[in-house]
Design a protein that fits this description.
By secondary structure, the chain is an all-alpha fold. Helix content is 55%, strand content 0%. It is built from 6 helices and no strands. The chain has helices at residues 3-11, 23-34, 49-78, 89-97, 111-121, 125-132. The protein is elongated, with a radius of gyration of 48 Å.
Length: 143
């Protein structure tokens, strides 16, 4: 005989736990009685005319913006490209009146090379002042 069968013979198959008769039939009623009253759903407020048409106005504005962008892109793509032979009037005027003094001076030389060139070209600060029209303050005379 197996060990399980010996335990069944000794103690039986009854677990000893029982549910009272009609418990599950009354359980739903008891739970519903113990719950608080369900609040009434709030009434909806009527929407104004603007609230009703606002999504459509926004949609129309979006399509108008897309149309304007497409119009600008089309206008730019069909116009003549900018080049130096045919510049717009404002650029042509600026190019005609520009002087060398107004243009920035860019160099690839480093500071050390520029300093060396300046010290070899000028023997005194007075020569530098005369060439470039600078007037240095007296505290910089020792340079």
């Amino acid at each position: 005989m197996r060990h399980e069968d010996q335990l069944k013979d000794k103690y039986g198959t009854d677990p000893g736990l029982r549910v009272p008769d009609g418990y599950f039939e009354e359980l739903n009623l008891k739970i519903m009685e113990s719950l608080p009253a369900y609040p009434e759903a709030p009434r909806t407020v009527d929407m104004s005319l603007w609230q009703k048409i606002k999504p459509y106005v926004y949609l129309a504005a979006m399509f108008a913006g897309i149309w304007m962008m497409m119009k600008v892109f089309h206008t730019v793509s069909t116009s003549e490209s900018l080049n130096l032979d045919n510049p717009p009037a404002a650029i042509a005027q600026a190019m005609a009146t520009a002087t060398d003094e107004a243009l920035p001076y860019f160099t690839t030389a480093n500071d050390y090379a520029l300093e060396e060139e300046m010290t070899q070209t000028y023997s005194s600060i007075e020569e530098f002042e005369a060439d470039f029209g600078y007037d240095f303050k007296p505290q910089y005379a020792s340079l």
